[in-house]
Amino acid sequence: MSYKKGSLVEDKSYAFALRIIKLYKSLISESKEYVLSKQILRSGTSIGAMVKEAEHAQSKADFIHKMSIALKEANETEYWFM
C-alpha cells in the first residue's frame, strides 16, 4: 500500500504508526508482554486514523473533536511507554 503525502501532522502520525507496528512485531517475536504491546499498537495507530478522519470533518467543531481524540490517543500511548 502506498501513502499519499499529506499535512505535516498526517505524515508524522503515519510514520509514528509504522514505527509502532514495527515495535509491536518485535515485542511479539521476542515473546514479550502481549497485553501492553496490544494496547500500544491500538492507541499508537489510532492517532493517525483520527487525524485522517479530522481531514474530512463536517464542521470546525467536528474537526476539533477528532483532533482532540487523536491527542488523547497520543497521551495514552505516551503513558504505556512510561
What is the radius of gyration? 14 Å
Assign a percent range to the helix content: over 70%
The CATH H-level superfamily is: 23S rRNA-intervening sequence
Structural class estimated from helices and strands: mainly alpha
Straight-line distance between termini: 32 Å
Individual helix count: 3
- Taken as a percent bin, the fraction of beta residues is under 5%
Q: Give a short account of the largest sheet.
A: none
CATH class: Mainly Alpha
Poorly predicted runs are: none
The arrangement of helices and strands along the chain is: HHH
Level-2 CATH architecture: Up-down Bundle
Total domain count = 1
The whole-number mean of residue pLDDT values reads 90
